[in-house]
Amino acid sequence: MQWIKLLIYLISSLILKTNAQFERDPNGYIAYCPCMGRFGNQADHFLGSLAFARALNRTLILPPWVEYRKGELRSRQVPFDTYFEVEPLQEFHRVILMSDFMSHLADEVWPASERVSFCYMERKSLQQEKNDPNAPNCHAKDGNPFGPFWDTYNIDFVASEFYGPLHFDVHHSAIATKWQQSYTADKWPVLAFTGAPASFPVQLENRVLQKYLKWSPRYREAAREFIRNVLPRGAFVGLHLRNGIDWVRACEHIKDSQQLFASPQCLGYKNERGELYTELCMPTKEAIVRQLKRIIKNVRQSQPKNEVKSVFVASDANHMISELSNALSRMDISVHKLPEDDPYLDLAILGQSNHFIGNCISSYSAFVKRERDTHGFPSYFWSFPKEKERQQSKPHEEL
């Protein structure tokens, strides 16, 4: 009989804990679709959304990550905690997984008959017959990934709400108070945005929130296993190379822009550290080899007891394994990549490298840089600072 009482006690404790865990937040919730770009952009937006939720004192509903698989017409939604832990985020502010919110709270907090989508102004549908000049609409589920994202949780919207001229910069104005006054939690329990309530690239003030974004045990251990079992013992340099055809086309916008994507991370948010130039976006293979050799030589001089023994490369296209291996052969340094593409594992490994060289323009590189900043690890950018013309005219190995 004693074990039965114990079993009943454990079950009761579990039920009470579950009920407490999913207790309704009287301050309301924020939901959004991370519908702009791939992971790097979504991560920038996440940090801003987290800051926004805290400023409004609403629980942030953690959205799944939106992924695009080759050959698939519709995006896939991968649960937030596949890649990152939830608990560390709660040290900063209240959060809940979207699946948990929809399973345990939505029926009470956000019934289907009261689900309203939020957008700054009317969002036109790609299907012209849906556009009614007398009934403007957010068309929150129009297109990919918008439709597949909300469909994952069987969410439909019965109305649209245009929140302009309100904005998301909670650091330089009293906008949070205006949001709270305009949309009280009793009347608007969930603010469901068609896109992230945040700016891109991530605001300078929100970069520090990266410290609350911790890899899930699965990816943390996978990164450690690769470093321990594949890379030779010793220090290693992590490289991120962006050189796919889509990136080549993106770099064409350099000539018409003051900033591009994540470029403020090296140029400064007001271009206080320089202007855009082509090599910053697409360094030549020769420049890549020169800069890598320079860093390795500097490390050998400054840290003779922890010499660089290997290089790990993450790339969206050409990893330059043969070129880098040939260039480093005399230095007895091996070059590695994952046997199968996994951009998230790439990120986790790059974050643990002794030294990292990334692309200043890339938000994917920016994620690694922010993570490393939280640990005080050194990071560099390709072709930054810019080579002086007099240096470029001289043949040499180093920048």
**End-to-end separation:** 77 Å
Q: Could you describe the largest sheet, including whether it forms a barrel? A: 6 strands, parallel
Task: Summarize model confidence as the mean pLDDT.
Answer: 92
List unreliable stretches of 5+ residues.
12-19, 393-399
Query: In DSSP terms, counting alpha (H) and pi (I) runs of 4 or more, how many helices?
Result: 15
Sheet/helix structural class = alpha/beta
Query: How much beta, percentage-wise?
Result: 5-15%
N-to-C series of helices and strands: HEHEEEEHHEHEHEHEHHHHEHEHEHEH
- Percent of residues in helices: 25-40%
Overview of this structure, please?
This protein is an alpha/beta fold and 399 residues long. The protein has 15 helices and 13 strands. It has helices at residues 2-21, 39-56, 98-104, 106-109, 146-151, 175-182, 217-229, 245-251, 264-267, 278-281, 285-302, 321-328, 343-352, 363-375, 389-392; strands at 29-32, 59-62, 65-67, 76-78, 95-97, 116-119, 159-162, 190-193, 235-241, 308-315, 334-336, 355-358, 379-381. The strands form 3 sheets. A 6-stranded parallel beta sheet has the order 5-2-1-8-6-7. Helix 2 (39-56) links the parallel strand 1 (29-32) and strand 2 (59-62). Helix 7 (217-229) packs across helix 13 (343-352). The protein is globular and about 70 Å long.
Task: Give keywords.
single chain; 399 residues; alpha/beta; six-stranded parallel sheet; five-stranded parallel sheet; 15 helices; 13 strands; 36% helix; globular; disordered C terminus
